[in-house]
Fold each of these.
Amino acid sequence: MAVREIIRMGHPTLRQVARPLVLEELSSRFIDQLIRDMVDTLHQAGGIGLAAPQVNESLRLAIIEIPGGESRYGEIPAMPLTVFVNPEIEVLDGGSAGCWEGCLSVPGLRGFVERPQHIRVRSLDLRGNRLETELHGFFATVLQHEFDHLDGKLYLDRLKDTRLLVFEDLLNAGQAIAGD
Ligand code: NI
């Protein structure tokens, strides 16, 4: 088990546009170890998604694993551990909805961000196979949040109003303003 340090807002890597992986890299020891470490790091942090730039590797790679059930985001559906390499998002119909997002690189805070709720994602898996999937609702929000990291963006950049940025403990205690 190798838990890596999750870099926090202010670290320059979080603001870089990460580079795509080339096919030959996918089977490398380096990427294999990186994914294992990212999984360990995600589990230790208790998160649901982690992008490679958050462990200071500026690569277009992210993992998502959503246990489902009751969480700090309320009742949510499950998604098994999935690796996304060089993902691309296409926004489909369905409008936007808001969610109180948090980020392991911005500990202690939550922000109410509106995002499209119906997207198509095209990416590669670790074998280089094309993966295409259509996502709705919470899943669409989570993937957009993670893939923003690959473009050097944080959810804070998408806040419409800075009053929608609050401390997580106040939000959980019901003392923060509601965003919806
Ligand atoms: Ni994040």
Note: The chain has three helices and ten strands.
Amino acid sequence: MRLIMLGPPGAGKGTQAALVSAAHGVPAISTGDIFRANIKGETPLGLQVKEITASGGYVPDEITNAIVRDRLAEPDASSGFLLDGYPRTTGQVEALDQMLAESGHALDAVVELTVDTDEVVQRLLARAADQGRADDTEHVVRERMRIYAEETAPLAAVYRQRGLLHEVDGMGTVEDVTARIEAALSDRAGA
Ligand code: ADP
């Protein structure tokens, strides 16, 4: 199973990605987690992306695409993966298409979690209090939502045209949302 999880910051992508990937026996790959681990470890990549991520901007496509290319080449991703937070730009969609074409694989589905903006801001501010992420202040949260709407929301249209998009209501309990995602995945033609 090769899956993409789309959704605005705070939609619960990370939580659902972990549950859905475990259920399907594929790794959940989060570019945000990869960047955070590198920032924490003060690696050259971490130093390069620290300020960009702290301000809510997007890491340049060349950097992000190269990281995903390496990660997808790991053995655990050979029979499937769930991408969380990637692709986020049309350039990344093209890069992923290229990587998949090279390995002779295709995406099975794209799940877009839809949410209520006000509720999402509240969730993110609660997470900031919990986890102390540098990019969860209200100002940065709003900036990340604006960039999402501008850069990433159009990706849903691309995948819809390809017949891969499943919009799933991301509001409600974690269990409810997981059940909706699984229902959407099992409804796929040929699933
Ligand atoms: P969220 O989905 O809550 O916004 P993520 O953990 O997915 O957070 O990403 C955190 C930050 O990492 C983003 O705001 C961005 O700066 C950077 N980032 C993550 N994935 C990408 C990507 N695919 N392209 C560019 N930047 C990214």
Note: The beta strands are 2-6, 28-30, 81-84, 109-114, 165-169.
